[in-house]
Fold this protein.
Amino acid sequence: MCALQSAVSAPEHPSIHLRPTAELAERVLLPGDPGRALALAQVLIAEPKMFNHHRGLWGYSGPANADGRPLTIQATGMGGPSAAIVLSELIALGARRAIRVGTCGALDPTLELGELVIARESICRDGCSRALADTARVSADRDLCDALIAAAPRAHVGTAVSVDLFYDPEPDRGPHRLGGDEGARDSGDGPAIAIEMESATLFALGARAGVPVGCVLVVTDVFDTAGTRTRIDDHALLDAAERMGATAVAALASR
């Protein structure tokens, strides 16, 4: 228990969707995939304890292998609405810093499978972030973003675009189009280099709550000019996810 001395205990009345079965750390990693939460917990946390399994949103807590300080890894599920529920309840329970550790598709043709992308900002092309922020773009916390860049100097840094649909039925709106369309060219740090589904919501919610949120992503999909998808294989994804998780922990440890 002493290794978790700075962890935040769950309140007497649990949240609706998360049912804590272990202590929550003030710093949290947010993968979308529950299976990736387990995989990251096994390599990043010493003797991880399950924090949540309600609704299949697996989460784990324990002392980080990197520095011995408390760390929670909590899955958000897919899409902005699920991510908003999870982060809102984590903040209510005591989370004070969070980094999304997720996956993305490449919009920049120079990105390759397995590479890391650090999102400085996200374009709000999803309904959830637009409901939270009356703006076209939302920014990551600057200090967390700088810490991620320092921890992974070879990572690509730029703008992501968050959307609602993984499979868009309209070919002209596909990922290969978004990198150059009007929504990705408006004012900000330039066109989007990656597409995903949660970062804009998490940035917007963190800003509203005064909780720093950052984002590092693994490129899992690349597209040709016709929109044909090439997907990373499972072994390469696991290796890249572990590098991503280690980067996020290093960034949190430096703050």
Q: What stands out?
A: The two ends are 23 Å apart (CA to CA).
